[in-house]
Amino acid sequence: MAQMPGLVLPSYYLYYQSPVKIVETPDGGARVWRVSIDTGAWQEKNDLFSEIVFDIGGDVFRRTPEDFVQEVERFRAHYLEGEGPIFALYETVQAVRDVAKAEDRHLTPKEQALIRGIRQRTFVMFEEQLRAAGDPGADPDIARAA
Question: What gap in Å lies between CA 85 and CA 96, rounded to an integer?
Fold first, then answer.
């Protein structure tokens, strides 16, 4: 992939409601990673590069690292099912959201902060598991820096 003036890597996006990141390769190129709807792991999708970089707007939205972490965890919690501490935390987030919905109100600032903190934590946990399993797209440091 050719270097593009003005493109700062890594960069983070929501592409048709799916989290995507573009990272620099050691040789100065770029690699596109998209979260798998089936596993929550990273799938290399370099064919999306041009569409994402040139078509921001419509169904492609740039995200800050902090918001990207939240989007990834919202996506994983919505599409994945499982056991263990990560899924227990996903259920906690859903329970907080369900209470607010049942009470027909917006989340309070405290609830929003709680959810953001939990999602940041589950992102690191999930990414560390992916990295241990050899997923080359895993990067828990995104959340640590956010």
Answer: 17
